[in-house]
Amino acid sequence: MSEVYAVRRGLLRDRCAAVGSAAALVSRPANVRYLAGGAPPGAVLLLGPDEDVLLCPRPPTGDPADGRTDEQLRVDLLSVTGGDPVVAAADLATSCGAESLAVEEHDLTVARHRAMSAVAPKLRLADLGVTVEQLRIVKDEEEIGCLRIAAEITDQALGELLESILVGRTERHLALELERRLVDHGADGPAFATSVATGPNSGRGRHRPSDRRVEEGDFLSVCLGANYRGYRCEIGRTFVIGTAPADWQIELYDLVFAAQRAGREALVPGAAYRDVDRAARHLLDSAGHGEGLPPRTGHGVGLEIVEDPQLAPAAMGKLDACVPVTVEPGVHLPGRGGVRIDDTLVVRPEADGGPELLTITTKELLAL
Questions:
Q1: Which residues of the chain have pLDDT under 70?
Q2: What burial class does residue 52 get, using C-beta atoms within 10 Å of its C-beta: 0-12 exposed, 13-18 middle, 19+ buried?
Q3: Which of 204, 236, 279, 296 is in Cβ range 3.0-4.6 Å of 223 for a Cys bridge?
Q4: Euclidean distance between the first and final Cα of the chain, in Å?
């Protein structure tokens, strides 16, 4: 993998050179991990004119959840306890002869930015912007392999829960059990806070589990995902508890299912982000649910659970192959509940079979 990380750093160095910066400082943890293989807590990555250095405020613990740092990368520990690695990086860049340093202004606080200017007053600080985030959009096959395993773990955890007795258990208890099952099956942890929503809470995106107990006739919506080697996936499903679904539940479920299928089918290389959103949103809007819809139909996933691209009405850009995204339409009816269906897929050309579905738990409306 050392060669992979070196190539990634080389691409970033080329982009910095194109705008006149011989050095760059990467501080956003997911970006550090993408370029260095590992991101110990608080570490930053300096791409210098001659050498790349990972600056750590304390010795790395070796925790697998932090990743495995590229063995070819120089690692410096701060000599001052409590020192700020971004300040140390500015000082090091100056000593290496750099006249300018591109930084991730969207990640740095004003105080840290000022501290860098104070220690290296002659160093010109430029904005690196979201350059690394843009490099991360298209995944290589090893990254997709990690996402595929994360999805398999997630499907396993959800499948086991569906075989258990659910009536009478609280949303909070079910969410904790799902997260435990993720770890039991090999996840580093949950990709995000697991959401379990029942009855009138169902269908809400990112609902925070409460002490409400599952009752017969409820819609039960779950949204969860595994974190495997830093890569995160997402799945969302809705079921009916203990009895045959009511007519309104079947009607609402079929509508959301059709919208989700339309969004999935729109995932082709070259498709505009907004067109994927429109494919799903149009069906729900036409059925009278437009006003309460989420602001986006889906988003990219990877080292963070929400990455670019954003599949939203005003999003600019077009899909490339090998981009993993979610498609997650949902409708919530206040006081009654709702439906959310969410999959993680990888954009593939039609010649390769079209979108690759990573999360494969059934989307049939089951009565549990």
A1: 1
A2: buried
A3: 236
A4: 44
